[in-house]
Design a protein that fits this description.
It comes from Peronospora matthiolae. The protein is α/β, with parallel strands linked by helices and 781 residues long. It contains 34 helices and 25 strands. Helix 19 (381-391) packs across helix 28. The N and C termini lie far apart (100 Å). 42% of the residues are buried.
Length: 781
Amino acid sequence: MGIQLRKLMRSRVIVVFGATSRIGRSVLEVLAAQDQVSVALVAAVESAKDTRVQRLKSATNSYIVQCNFAQGGEDSLRRAVRNADAVLLVPALSESGVRFSRRVIDAAAAEQVPRLVVISSILASPELLGRCRQEHAKERPATEAIGSTSTDVAALEGYEAVEVHARNQLPEHGRCVSLRIPLLMETLLYCRDELLFANRFVGCYEPDTHVPCISVRDVGVAAAEVLANPRRKYEAVYRLTGGINVSCSPNELAHTLKGHLGRDIKYRKLSDADFLRVMEEKDAPVQVAQGTVGLRIFLEERESHEEDVSTSQEKSSSNTREEGPRSLHLPDAFRSTSNFRQLTKRDHTTPRQWLQQHATSLFARTPQNQVQLFVVGSGEALFLEVSKFVASQITAPSSLPPRDVGESAVPTVLSGRSNSAGDYSGLAQAKVTLCTVKSAPGSVERSKSFGIPSPPAVYQLEGAPPYPMDDLLKQLSSLDVVLLIPPLRLGGRACLDVVRAVVHAAARANAWGVVLVSSIFVGSPTLQQSVILEQLEEIEGCVKSSGVSYTILRLPLFMEYFLALSCCDEVGSLDEEKRELPFRDEAKFESEVEARTQDEVEAGEIKAMVSSPPSHIMWPLLEPSLASARIYLMSLEDAAKALVAAAFTFPLHRGKTKELYTSSVTMTDVQRILQRHASKARPVRLSRVDALKERQGREFWRVAYWPRAHTQQFLECAVEFARDVRTAADSAAIVGGDVDTSAMVLPVSQSFEDLTDIRPRTFDEWAEENSKRYTQLLAAH
C-alpha cells in the first residue's frame, strides 16, 4: 500500500536488494542526491533492526521494507517490488545468495516490473573460473585436485547464472540491464590491515600488469542512471571497462600510495594458491577471489601473446590468426569500451583520482589505529636482545625505517595534533614499554607452611623504580600489544603465575592482544610428552583460554647456545688433542670433504670421540646419537626481529600459532662451520664439550634464553626426531622404497622472510660474526 500511495504522488519507486553492500549503498546515495528527479527509494532488507540499515536510512532517507530472504519468503519479495518502477539487484556470491537472487528475479517478473538492473562482473565468466580452477589444481596435490566441491559449484553459480536467469524471465529487450564491472578499486580494502601495519599489500598479479578497475561510486552513478529512467531504451549488457587510464599496475599503485601516505609501500606477489588462501582468511567471496586469479591468467596470457606477435612480424597474417591467444577467447569482455560515458555523460574516476580522495582517510596511520609495544620478561637473553633491538631504533622519527629491520621497525605515526583544518600533523614513534620481572611470587607451599600471604611480585619498568605487579600492569592500554617472554628461569609455578597475571591485565585493559614465546617442539605429534613440554603447553593453554587475542611464536634453540658452552678443562694439552684427532686447515679440510662422503667424515669424528672420552663429560656434543641429529636454530637477533614484527603487525597474525626457525644442521655440520671461521691455531673440538654444562655467570638463560632443562629438551627432541627419520628410512628400504631423509625436517608455518620482510642470518654468517667469542670458549687449550 505504501508503494502504491507513492505512485499516486507521481514518484518513481526504486527498490534495491543488496542495499547494505558497498554498491547498493552507493546507488542509493547517488539517487538521493538527484533533486531534479522525484524518486522514492526503498531498501529491501532482511532485518530492519540491523545497525547498517539504520545508518543507511538516515543517510539516504530511504524507506525500509523487511522481507523474508529464506526459502518460502517469495510472497514478501513480491510485495516489496509490487508497483515498483525499477529494481536493482546486487547479487550475493554464495550458493544461497544465487538462489535468493533467482527468487528476486522471479518476483520482479511476476509483478511486471518495467526495469531490472543486475550488477554483474567481467570476473565471473565461466571461462575465467574454469581457467582459475585448472591453474589452481596444478599447485595442489592430486588427491585434492580431483573432483568438484560445493565451493566450486557456488563459484560457477555466480553472476553468470543470475544473468542467464534474468534474461530468461524478462526476455523483452531492454527490460533487464546487466552492468558488467571490472575489478573494484575498493578491493584494496581487503589489504587495509597490511597497509596500516606492514606497509604492503598483496595480490596475484605481476608487478607491472595493468588491471582494469572501477570505483564503487562510478558503478553507483551508472546504475542510478538506468534506474532513474525506466522508460528509456537501453542495451541488455553494458561493460563498464575503460581505457589505459582506468587501469593500474601494482607497482603504480605502490608508488601512488607512497606519495599520499609518506611511507615506503611494497607489493608482495603471491602464488595463486596462497592468494586464494589469504582471501579466504579475509572472508572475501570465493567467486571474487577465483575470478581475480582467472583475470590474472587472461591478462598475462594476453600480454605474452602480444609479445609473441610483435617478435614474429615476418609471419603471414593467416599464421598469426591461427596462433591467437592460447586458450582463452574473451576479447569482448575486457575490451575498452565507452559504455560508461554513454550512460553517464562523464569520464571514469581514475585510480590516481580515487587514491587522492581516499588514501589518507583509509590508510593513514594515526595514534588511534596503531599498536604500542609492551614487553614483559625477566632479564634473560631474549628479553635483553629485544630491548637492544628496539632501543637501537629510538631515534629521530622517520617515516622511512632502515632497510635492515623490515616489518620489525618501530612504527612512525602522526602525533595526533591537528591544525586549523582538522588534519593531523607531526611524526612520532609508537610507544614502547619494557617491563622486567625482578622477583617472582612465593610458592604455594611456602604460603601454606608459614600461614602468611606471599609478598607481591615486584616488576620494574625499564629505567624506573620497582613497582608491585598490579600497579605496573595498570599501565597497559587498549593500544598495547603485550610481547610476553615467559620467565622460565623462575620455575614452572612462578612462570605460570606471571603469565596469568599479564594475560588477565591485558584482558582488563582490552589490549590488542598477546604475542607469546614458546618452543618449536610443543604440539609435535611424534614426540613423547615430558614435564617441560607439558609446562609450555600449560602456558599456551592459559593464553588461549583467557579470551585475549593472541599470536604464539614457537621458536627453536638459539645459536647463542654455543656461546654458553666451554671446552672441557681436563682434556690435556693441545698436542695430545692433535694426536687424537689431527686438526686440518681450511683448504685441506674442504678438499678432504669433497673426496670423502659425509658418512665417512661423521664416522671418523665419532670414532675419535669415542676412543678417548673425557670421563667427566655427561653428554658430549658429538655423542653418536646427537652428532647425526638435526638441530633447529635461530639467532637471538633474528628472534627479536620476528617477535617485534609479529607484535607491530599483530592484526595480521591474530589467533595464529607459528613455528619458526632459520637453520637446520646436524651437530657435525655445526663443528665444521665453527671450525671454518675459528682461528686456525685453535681447533674447535665439540667432542670435548658437554652439551649441558653451565658455568656460573654464563647460565644458558643468560646467554641463550632457554634454561638448562629446556635446552636439554631441545636436544633430546632432536635426537628422538632423528631416530624417527631413520626408522622411516629403514622401513622404506625393507619394502624396496627410497626416502629422501634430507627433506624430512620440521615444517615452518611461515618463513622468517615473509614475517619480517628481511633475510634471516644463516648459521655460517653467525659463526663468522662470532668467531672470536666462540673460539675462546670452545677451542682446545
